[in-house]
Amino acid sequence: MSASRFVRRYGYIADMRTYEKFAAATSADIVAASFDHAQDPRLREVAQSLVRHLHAFVVDVGLTQSEWELAIDFLTRTGHLCDGERQEFILLSDVLGVSMLVDAIANETASSATDSTVLGPFHVVDSPPRSAGDSITTSQSGEPCVITGRVVSTTGEPLPGAVVDVWQADDAGFYDIQSAEVERGELRGLFTADEDGEFWFRSIVPAAYPIPHDGPVGQLLEASGRHPWRPAHIHFIAGAVGHRPLTTHIFVAGSDYLDSDAVFGVKPSLIKEFRTVTDAGTLPDGVATPVRHCHFEIVLEREEA
Ligand code: BEZ
Ligand code: FE
């Protein structure tokens, strides 16, 4: 390609500071300018900010050649572990707090909606549909519990027909998809709220568990003196017509690791008591006592808000 065609096609080359010496003091400006003519203004904004922060970081820590090689090796191994089942890059984002930060930005409102938290890698799109009062487990092990809930709008109106997708780990801290022996759908369920916006199900109290830590992310945690554990929790995605879907958890009050969740997902409002109930009169009909009970009021924000 002739020089003039090159300049016509890649017009930015004319204003790139290619004549300036590439040095620690000038690198961010030079590279940021190379994105000046990005067609998409958002791409330009994100790429230039990324370049500036990345270059500032490299200068700040005085990154050495061997540390750069180590970082490339770490990211390469992280990528090699990713497939349809495992997403080591999301796990990296989780332990760096980036997943929760993106979630915080997306849900930063002054509304009284229920707090959101991280989705995690164990959600499946085909959770088994279940009816009110069903048990989400076929296993005999674990401490029985009952979860009652109600889905309402921020103005307090019940949301009949709201769909509540639930999934949790067992009493040893494993999800069904982590074991070839466990039937798919174990400890999962898709519930539809009744005319009062209410839903309920039987389950077992989940255990705390470590996030997958047999890969580069686990090595990073180990080298940093960090543990891989998450406090005991149950996941929920709740949706209702005209309302913003909510991805959240309830955390079992008193669980270990509430103050040191490996992925920073705990919010105080989401820590719930799982009280031992002996008086069956306070529970839905037919529930045998004693049983642990937790009530979760899910408040959804209107879509247009
Ligand atoms: C989870 O709770 O399922 C989870 C969340 C983030 C990383 C790993 C697991
Ligand atoms: Fe989980």
What is the number of strand segments?
Answer: 11
Q: Give the helices and strands as they follow along the chain.
A: HHHHHHEEEEEHEEEEEE
Amino- and carboxy-terminal Cα gap: 53 Å
Strand content: 15-25%
Number of helices: 7
What integer is the average pLDDT?
Answer: 93
What overall geometry do the principal axes of the alpha carbons give?
A: elongated
Unreliable residue runs: none
Features:
single chain; 305 residues; alpha+beta; five-stranded mixed beta sheet; 7 helices; 11 strands; 20% strand; binds benzoic acid; binds fe (iii) ion
What does this structure look like?
The protein has helices at 3-9, 27-33, 41-61, 65-80, 88-95, 98-106, 216-223, and strands at residues 144-153, 163-168, 188-192, 198-204, 209-210, 229-230, 233-239, 246-252, 271-272, 275-277, 291-300. The mean pLDDT is 93. The N and C termini lie far apart (53 Å). Helix 2 packs antiparallel against helix 3. It has seven helices and eleven strands. By secondary structure, the protein is of the alpha+beta class. 25% of the residues lie in helices and 20% in strands. Strands 3-2-7-8-9 form a five-stranded mixed beta sheet, with no helix packed on it. A four-stranded mixed beta sheet has the order 4-1-11-10, with no helix packed on it. Strands 5-6 form a two-stranded antiparallel ribbon. Residues 120, 122, 169, 233, 235 line the site of fe (iii) ion (FE). Fe (iii) ion is lined by residues 120, 122, 169, 233, 235.
